[in-house]
Amino acid sequence: MELSSVILTTGSSVGFFRLVNTGVSKLPMPESARRNAWKWRNISTSFVHSFITAIWAVLCFFLHPQMAEDLIETFSWFSHALVSFSIGYFIYDFLDMVVNQKLSQSWELLFHHIVVITCFGLSVLSNRYLGFAVVALLVEINSVFLHLRQILRMASMASGTLYRVNSMINLGTYVVFRINTLAWMTRWLVLNRDKVPLLAYTLGSVGMAIMTAMNIVLFCRLLRSDFLKSSTRETKKEKET
Fold it and tell me: What residue intervals traverse the membrane (predicted)?
């Protein structure tokens, strides 16, 4: 695919998410979220990306099932557009955090975005590994519930039934679409070492190692925040009664 087409798709995506962010700022905002209006807009924009990408990634494999058999060479415009679209989002989100958040608060996500943009950029520019990139984007299925969790917490709805149900779905999809997917991708990369050039293999290996470490840490935080702490509170209440 021509570089100009990649730049056009990615640039359009950056513009789209800028418009989404602006649109969110025009909508009513919960009083509790007004203390950090930028974070509310940022998470809401991320939620939109996750929702679109989750459906799009599943459709890629539904419309082109042969991609599951060959993650390296199988090409489709639909999948290429998805990866380019996501690069645009990560570029937009990177710039949004650089401008609006302290480096000490955002360096982990900024580093994550650099790794993703680099790996996805290699894929769209070489027209290879698109299947691998789309598999990686299946994690966005979990991100829908992960971002919804943050939205509910900012809206002071962390004690309701909706939050509890979302927490359970979030943890379940986290295991299936983040931890399991990353484990499968790492295994695939090792088994197909001879088919992958050194540069791509190195980028993939480093990327997988970073993502795995970050996701294990986040999983522990979610488990402690949404389940272990709530169980402790319930135990205390039972003792008091």
Answer: 45-65, 77-95, 107-124, 130-148, 168-186, 198-223
Rounded distance between C-alpha atoms, residue 5 and residue 12, angstroms: 10
Helix/strand/coil (H/E/C) assignment for every residue in 56-125: HHHHHHHHCHHHHCCCCCCCCHHHHHHHHHHHHHHHHHHHHHHHHCCHHHHHHHHHHHHHHHHHHHHHHH
Higher pLDDT, 238 or 150: 150
Q: What is the dihedral of CA 72, 75, 80, 86, to 10 degrees?
A: -30
Residues 6+ apart with CB under 8 A from 67: 60, 61, 74, 76, 79, 130, 131, 134
Closest CA to 79 of 116, 41, 124, 111: 124
SS3 for 123-157 is HHHHCCCHHHHHHHHCCHHHHHHHHHHHHHHHCCC
Pair 153, 76: CB distance under 8 Å: no
Distance CA 43, CA 61 (A): 27
Residue 193 tokens, joined = 């070492």
pLDDT tens figures, 35-80: 999 999 999 999 999 999 999 999 999 999 999 889 999 999 999 9
